[in-house]
Amino acid sequence: MRAANGVEVVYYVASSIDGYLAPADGSLDWLSAFEATDDDFGYREFYGSVDAIVIGSKTYEQALEFDSWPYEGKHVVVMSCRTLPKVTAEVVIDSREPAAVVEDLRSQGFRRIWLVGGGELAGAFQREGLITNYIISVIPIVLGTGRGVFGSHGGFERLELVGTRAYAEGIVQLSYRTPLDA
Fold it and tell me: Which listed residue, of 97, 140, 155, 159, carries a Cα 20 to 30 Å from 124's Cα?
């Protein structure tokens, strides 16, 4: 694993084959058929490897509607200028720019950060060159329209493929990192 300034920022995300995180309404129903399988597609191992989470406000609000808090035991930074409820003491609401948030997490000793998203937030991190690793699980569904993996903020970046894994359900997980000379 490589890290910039001692911190890895990993964008771990599910995407339709046409590059969407969700339909325009933000619903996650399109993923339910794959969540019902016995395979977690490497999620538990990945979750155990991160020590902090950065999440956008809309994705955070969606997580608040789940039956249970999905980020138990992790330090969570919600990127938002709005006042939002804090579900646990481990949740921090932060309105600063992405680089300041990453530097603050680094100074607190966090070394592997999961950038949960959504797409607009991921695009802002990507544009600032803060994402060191990308793990994209491509789901065999075409949504046609919706919320893009990088919203409207992403920029050009050449990546290095470091791994692929195909699952029986048709999901292909692609792992990339930013090149060492980037």
Answer: 140
What is the sign, positive or negative, of the torsion defined by CA atoms of 105, 106, 111, 117? Answer: positive
CATH of the domain at 105: 3.40.430.10
> Could you give the CA distance from residue 125 to residue 129 in angstroms, rounded to a whole number?
6
What phi, psi does 125 have (nearest 5°)?
-65, -45
Rounded to the nearest 10°, the torsion over CA 148, 67, 70, 104 is: 80
The continuous run of DSSP H or E covering 22 comes out as: strand 20-22
- The H-assigned helical ranges of the chain are 32-35, 43-49, 57-64, 98-107, 119-127
Residue-wise pLDDT tens digits, 26-82: 888 888 878 767 778 889 999 999 999 999 999 999 999 999 999 999 999 999 999
**What domain range is 66 assigned to?**
8-177
β 160-166/172-177 pair status: antiparallel
